[in-house]
Amino acid sequence: xxxxxxxxxxxxxxxxxxxxxxxxxxxxxxxxxxxxxxxxxxxxxxxxxxxxxxxxxxxxxxxxxxxxxxxxxxxxxxxxxxxxxxxxxxxxxxxxxxxxxxxxxxxxxxxxxxxxxxxxxxxxxxxxxxxxxxxxxxxxxxxxxxxxxxxxxxxxxxxxxxxxxxxxxxxxxxxxxxxxxxxxxxxxxxxxxxxxxxxxxxxxxxxxxxxxxxxxxxxxxxxxxxxxxxxxxxxxxxxxxxxxxxxxxxxxxxxxxxxxxxxxxxxxxxxxxxxxxxxxxxxxxxxxxxxxxxxxxxxxxxxxxxxxxxxxxxxxxxxxxxxxxxxxxxxxxxxxxxxxxxxxxxxxxxxxxxxxxxxxxxxxxxxxxxxxxxxxxxxxxxxxxxxxxxxxxxxxxxxxxxxxxxxxxxxxxxxxxxxxxxxxxxxxxxxxxxxxxxxxxxxxxxxxxxxxxxx
Length: 455
Ligand SMILES: [Ca+2]
Ligand SMILES: [Ca+2]
Description:
Rossmann fold, seven-stranded parallel β-sheet, globular, disordered N terminus, Alpha-Beta Plaits, four-stranded antiparallel β-sheet
């Protein structure tokens, strides 16, 4: 028995020594790396420092130099341009970060942080889940319907409204679920990038997950949907809600979340730039991004800079404040514990939380006197995905945020000369003040569409 115990102790002890040795080695490596960081504004997570999927910000005018990449010793690396300065570098070989960070051409390095859907809905009824699976299979092959021929030419006001674009950065949108943006500079299905924007045949948005011109809202396999619910059309629902409030505007679907509701910072950056560069005035981003942890010195600077790009171009970014970050019934004040992008200080971000049917804060909803702008209903009986052939009740801050995006689009398309800062100010000023939101949001009120439209 004693021998058995000793033997067990040895087996326990050996791995401990090994772990300690490896840990020491890791700490030493990280220590060297941390020293380099101080001199180069390196933004990296200690947990993911060994990541071979990195976002690198190059000094201006470095990007065109292909020899620079070869010079780094990244011959087997995949390099993808994200914007004017940021690139994504994926490598199967270990990257010598200490060498990279010393290069004068490199301004920043960070991991390609994950993003994920805030609220992934579950459908309890197996019959409805089966219907969803059938719909998902159809959605996979669907192409957008051709633009409808109108019997009479639209008047000037109507044309202006139809030119107003809201980009839905989400799980995709099922074709036909909402009026869809059309890229008139691109010829479909000729395998050419006619408008030279970097995307081939992108006539109605882009799927950044699968790299195809069909940003359709997909679900998991039929089995997964039946067993687990899968993605029950989050992006389609968001587009549907926006179009219900603003039926004349156009939805630009950009799929950056997979059917599991997961994505990455690199695609968020590309999608934000795509939306801004193709004329979207409002972007919805109802997901959360990893990487911001100031206590650990981590920053998702790449995402922040793309949101600043949108701000500089006068584009609003509607974000869901999220919920249940620390569990139901707990303190959901996100001022001291913000999550992102809703919690960023950018002036163009509108952070929305959810109310229940009785105009109380929904029990799951986050709030924040400085970080949450306003509230809207997150428990709508009217909200349903009727394209599925049955009614669904949904809840969450995504629903609230989608309604704010729709109302803002309706108002802004009526007042196209107003700047984004004015639109946001009018939105917040026109809210219906509620005691439950006093001290828990910037405006202290809930979305009031009628009041906003008469502002
Ligand atoms: Ca193109
Ligand atoms: Ca083409």
